[in-house]
Each structure stands twice: as C-alpha cells, then as structure tokens.
Write a structure and sequence with these properties.
Layout (H helix, E strand, L loop, with lengths): L3 H4 L7 E5 L2 E2 L2 H6 L2 E6 L7 H16 L4 E6 L7 H10 L4 E3 L24 H8 L2 H8 L6 E16 L14 E4 L3 H9 L3 E4 L5 H6 L5 E4 L1 H6 L8 E17 H6 L2 H35 L3 E3 L4 H19 L1 H9 L2
Parallel strand pairs: 3-4, 7-8, 7-9, 10-11
Antiparallel strand pairs: 1-2, 1-4, 5-10, 6-9, 6-10
Helix pairs in contact: 3-11, 7-12, 12-13
The protein binds (2R,3R)-2,3,4-trihydroxybutanoic acid.
The site of (2R,3R)-2,3,4-trihydroxybutanoic acid has 12 residues, from loops.
C-alpha cells in the first residue's frame, strides 16, 4: 500500500526510515514483512520522536528485519485525533500521543487527566505500568486499536503572554487553549478562564495573533515548539500529569504472528523507561534555556490554591470514572 508520504520519502527530511541505525533504500523497506507507518505531532528532537527511533531500532533488531517503522513526526500526517482515526482505518499503523483526543475513543482514559491526581512521576508509573494502566490500555481493543504502553509527555504548566500567573484569580477571563479533553476543559473553566479546546497544530499561530492569551503543556513541548517566541511567562503549576500512550492499529497488529506481537509489546514497555528519562533530562535543561531566551519562570505558584480551585471538577469526574478506581489510583504507593 503506497502513501504519498512514502513517494516523497526520498526527499522529505521528516520521514526517517531507520533499520538498525542505518538509512536504507526503499528496496530494503519493501523487504520488511511488516512496514509500519508511524505518525505523531511533536518535533524531531522531542522525546516522542527519540523514543520512537529507539523503538524502531529494537523492534527491527529483535525481529531480524521483519518489522520496519517509518517515523513521521511534526504533524506530517495530521494532528493527534486524525492520527488515532488513521489507526482505526489502518491507514496509519502506530503512534505515541497525548491523552488529549483519547477520551473521544475510550472515555475511561480521561481518568488520568484529573487535576493533581498523580503526586509525582513515580506514582504515575506505578499506576500506569500496573494493572490499572494495563486495564485502561486494554479498553482500546474495542475501538480497533491495541494499547501497547505508556510513555510520557510530562507534568503540564501554564504559559501566558501578558501577565504572570501565581494564583488561580490571575487566570480569570484569560483565553487559555486546552486539549480537546473534557476534563481539562472543565478544570480551566472552573478557574474562570475562557477555556478553548484546540488541536495542537493551530496553537502557535493563534498565540502569535493574540487570539489566545495562553496555553498549558510540559516544558519539552513549550521548548521544542518555541513558545518563548509567543509567550512571556511560564508558571510551574504542574496541575496535571500527561502520559503518552503508544498505540498500534488493530488491523496491523492482527496481521502479525504472536512472536512478532510479543516483541512489539515488550519493546514498547521497555522503551518507556528510556523515553521518560529523556523527558526529565530535557525538562531540567530546557527550563534554564527558556529563562535564557527571556521567559519569566514563576517557580512557586500557589499550587494548593490551584488544587482547591480545581477540586469541584475532581469530584464531578470522580463520580463518572468511579470513586473506587480513583481511590485505588490515589492509594497506589
Ligand atoms: O502530545 O496537544 C497537546 O497539548 C499535547 O500535549 C501535544 O500535542 C503533545
């Protein structure tokens, strides 16, 4: 099955075909028994891409070249919702995505988007790599997708153009972009903002044109998408943890024999550790670089005030996701 992207594969820098670390000719790709088209929104230097490059190498090596993965980063094949729809259609085979659009496919997935649910990254890993996480990933089977593992986007922080954010009232009336995620929308409406759901691809221009006052994302996203060019302040609210599920099209998965499926699953779980480490390394390094680029970092916004202000949303959705599940997540040590 030929894709326009592949036709332009020879010239387009965005499409990386990596087999055991060597750039190869299309002939070799066609040699692969399973050549998978992967797509995601972030840039070449973001840990989504770096994780996927490592994953492609491991999978190729361990399947003796039977699986080749073409990585399309920087929204080359569309925004996250379009890519996940592509998995269902079988036009795209693999992705790493935020939970932004996933509630539209698996509503239970939004439980991880509850504000201040996870105490720290280790708490998140315990839950997501454990029975609760596996159960959540398993729910994608019903929508033509196979959930493989949870990689990381990171704890999300607020950026603004005109005024610093230290307490919830600093956000009142501001037009803040949120992911197309009903928990995030409710949380930011609760803070009195004009919470504006928008696909990531439209955000930079909307900030540049002043159509938005701010947005919220982890540091590696803020840095790699050069938001310092359109935003002045970063407030380290860490108001929600953002995991990044790795998903494969069920159509592609079902074509693979069990030994190849086993390698695909185990390698995705294994690469999570490496990918999360990259997020933490970048967070540390890039915060200093954002400061050097002229952004003002609000190191200690009043997190307790944000937690309290968002509590009604926590309770509203806790009822929906099931008090028991939310309690089990909170009690996970
Ligand atoms: O997955 O949409 C978002 O804010 C996400 O964090 C971004 O697309 C990376």
């Amino acid at each position: 099955m030929w894709y326009p992207a592949r036709v332009s594969w020879f010239i387009a820098p965005a499409a990386i075909c990596l087999v055991a670390g060597f750039l190869i000719s299309p002939a070799d790709i066609r040699a692969a028994e399973f050549d998978l088209v992967e797509a995601h929104t972030t840039t070449a230097e973001h840990p989504y891409t770096l994780g996927m490059v490592r994953y492609a190498q491991l999978v190729r090596e361990r399947t003796q070249g039977r699986v080749a993965i073409q990585i399309h980063h920087s929204r080359e094949l569309g925004d996250e919702r379009q890519v996940v729809e592509g998995l269902q259609l079988g036009t795209i085979h693999l992705t790493v995505t935020s939970t932004g659009p996933l509630g539209g496919f698996v509503p239970e997935m939004n439980v991880v988007d509850l504000p201040f649910l996870f105490r720290n990254p280790e708490h998140a890993y315990k839950v997501l790599d454990g029975e609760i996480g596996r159960n959540l990933l398993g729910r994608f089977d019903a929508v033509g997708i196979k959930g493989l593992a949870f990689w990381e986007n990171g704890f999300r922080h607020i950026t603004t153009a005109k005024s610093p954010v230290r307490v919830p009232s600093d956000l009142k009336g501001l037009k803040i972009r949120v992911m197309e995620n009903k928990v995030h929308q409710a949380a930011f409406r609760q803070l009195g903002t004009d919470a504006t759901p928008m696909a990531w691809g439209e955000v930079f221009t909307s900030l540049q044109q002043g159509l938005l006052d701010g947005q919220e994302n982890p540091i590696p996203i803020i840095y790699t998408f050069k938001l310092d060019e359109v935003q002045k302040y970063v407030s380290l609210t860490a108001h929600v943890y953002s995991p990044a599920p790795v998903l494969i099209s069920k159509k592609a998965w079902d074509r693979m024999p069990p030994d190849v499926q086993k390698i695909m699953l185990e390698a995705a779980v294994e690469v999570a550790k490496y990918q999360r480490g990259l997020i933490h390394d970048q967070e540390r390094k890039q915060l200093g670089e954002l400061k050097a680029k002229g952004m003002t970092i609000i190191e200690n916004p009043d997190q307790a005030a944000f937690r309290e202000a968002m509590q009604p949303v926590f309770e509203q959705f806790q009822a929906q996701f099931g008090k028991d599940l939310v309690q089990r997540i909170i009690n996970t040590k």
